[in-house]
Amino acid sequence: MNKPSLYTSLSPAVLHLYNVRDCVVVVIDILRATSTIATALYNGAKSIIPVDSVEKCMRLGRDMECITAGERDGKIAEGLQYGNSSFDYPRNFIEGKILVLTTTNGTKLLHMAVAKGATEIITGSFLNFSAVCDHLIKEKKNVILACAGWKDKVNIEDTLFAGAVVSRIKEHFEINCDASKIANCLYDIAKDDLYEFMKKTDASHYHRLTNFGLEKDIRHCLTEDLADVLPYYVDERLVV
Amino acid sequence: MNKPSLYTSLSPAVLHLYNVRDCVVVVIDILRATSTIATALYNGAKSIIPVDSVEKCMRLGRDMECITAGERDGKIAEGLQYGNSSFDYPRNFIEGKILVLTTTNGTKLLHMAVAKGATEIITGSFLNFSAVCDHLIKEKKNVILACAGWKDKVNIEDTLFAGAVVSRIKEHFEINCDASKIANCLYDIAKDDLYEFMKKTDASHYHRLTNFGLEKDIRHCLTEDLADVLPYYVDERLVV
What we know:
homodimer, alpha/beta, globular
């Protein structure tokens, strides 16, 4: 029996090279959109509406009386209520609520995938790593691991997550994709301590967030399976 | 004193993210354009004219009475005389001659860099590895390592070469670029036997060229410093 194919798109700028139709597209923005999405949904958020602009975020927040959140360049965007940290969304705050979220890279990538005709989009992070892998194995469909990167540049943490997924599920897929293999190799050398690897290589995002005092956030976002949910995109929102 | 910056563009599709002006742009297409360019110039070719289409290659070949060569999808393009293998260009054949060359990825990337305003373009391959590194260290200018990839997809061998350069010269540069760090990590795990690494990971280009019986070509293109020249682009041609 033919195995389904798996590809990794290391940057939104190369997503157009892959046929996103009839695939499962995994949107990956480890620091921090897809980590925050997993956490908020795990902690009982009713749904998350990803939007591509701060203005739209504010407008939806007013119209629908929901929580507005998001960042630009790593900081809470002006006019929004909350940021892009998992720690902003404990259960006693977020349970039953709707969150409207806009981020620099992750939410933009998600809309790009939609615009290109993706029909099944889920979000992946280390926090919901096993849920993503189990789903991909079970679905038996072609997979595109779509890294958000940073303003279209390839980044280390999204590549590491893609590599972690490849490492876990590769027996079940046909992988004729050098980017997936590079990601797998990177994960193999980093897996014993992802945080230490980010620090040692002085990954650009480690550098940026550490400057904002967010070491705790980085450690959290590199931890497996703290938020065991599978967020999927339907009717313009993410739900579990 | 501030060190110059070094960036790696893993695919032509992300080259626009980097400012190629006032930089040294190193065009990298290990299998096989930039390896063949180094070899032909090392063996005494007068110059190499990289062109972006088979038609232009044939026309220049007629008008200037020079050798036409090039491939599409790994095979000699119809209408051209020679292919894209170093072994096609021994000294007793190429010395003193002008070669017009067109390839799937490398020559296209070179013209893209020109179109974006690059003023200093050199070509890099393992065959002229030390010449490239020595030049970059000496120039003290910002550097962009521009990988050709395969039809805009990231590939293993160009990434390995970028990683080899980063590994050799990183003390002399400021590197705030995750792609460079990923390339460096990949090279570190592969460097003991690059060919074996390509084989073990079943790199897409290893796979493709092996199907054409080109193992010997691959081994050759992964060997350091067999063609100790520095090809640079001036007046629409590559010379040393």
